[in-house]
Amino acid sequence: MATYIAFEGGEGSGKSTQAQVLADRLGAVLTREPGATALGAKLRALLLDPGEAPVSPRAETLLMAADRAQHMHEVVEPALTAGRHVVSDRSVFSSLAYQGGGRQLGVDAVWRVNDWALDGRWPDVVVFLDIDPADASGRLERALDRLEQEGDAFHQRVWAAYRELATETRRWVTVPAAGSIESVAAAVWAAVEPRLT
Ligand code: TMP
Is the CB–ligand 1 distance for residue 148 below 6 Å? Predict the structure, then answer.
């Protein structure tokens, strides 16, 4: 058996670093959304590059879901079928938080579109790296992409949506993101290891 593990959190939560550390420790396939396939790289640029044409909230949702459908087909499902654990830096739950919460389309509507895109194969374990966006914004040192440039109210709605989703503790584990890379990695391992299949 193999486990599909997703890292979730706001901008600057350290999830890319933690996804890498966990994938190394597990010998897992490390991947990400959006942008892990050839199609996805094009979609990621259309969605996030500040110079691209405007994208409406519903179009944004569908393009994120298209990236995800391709990612499932090309990367995630083949790896799981081959018996490899998969660690993904973001997943379908980013759409629930950002498009459902941040863009205010509603978590249920975004859930339905994505359930179809995924053909029902949702992550088995979700690690939520929890940090107040007001504390995390200082951690981003590179140029900001289109979603990172959204205002404080948007990022507070995303955070609120994550916290609500994370109350479902069968699949979700919440790890406070403040702390050293090593201490957060230790907390992630303690939460994930018992859930591996
Ligand atoms: P990243 O560089 O952390 O992967 O960020 C990609 C950006 O895209 C980030 O602002 C979150 C956003 N995003 C969504 O809005 N919906 C999604 O479904 C995904 C996967 C990412």
Answer: yes
- HEC profile of the chain: CCCEEEEECCCCCCHHHHHHHHHHHHCCEEEECCCCCHHHHHHHHHHHCCCCCCCCHHHHHHHHHHHHHHHHHHHHHHHHHCCCCEEEECCHHHHHHHHHHHCCCCHHHHHHHHHHHHCCCCCCEEEEEECCHHHHHHHCCCCCCCCCCCCHHHHHHHHHHHHHHCCCCCCEEEEECCCCHHHHHHHHHHHHHHHCC
Atom of ligand 1 nearest to the CA of 11: 3
**Distance of CA 94 from the midpoint of ligand 1 (Å):** 6
- The confidence score (pLDDT) of residue 170 equals 95
Q: Indicate the pTM of the whole model.
A: 0.97
Condensed to tens digits (0 to 9), the pLDDT of residues 80-112 reads: 999 999 999 999 999 999 999 999 999 999 999
Pocket test for ligand 1, best of 17, 76, 88, 90 (most atoms within 8 A of CB): 90
pLDDT in tens, 50-68: 999 999 999 999 999 999 9
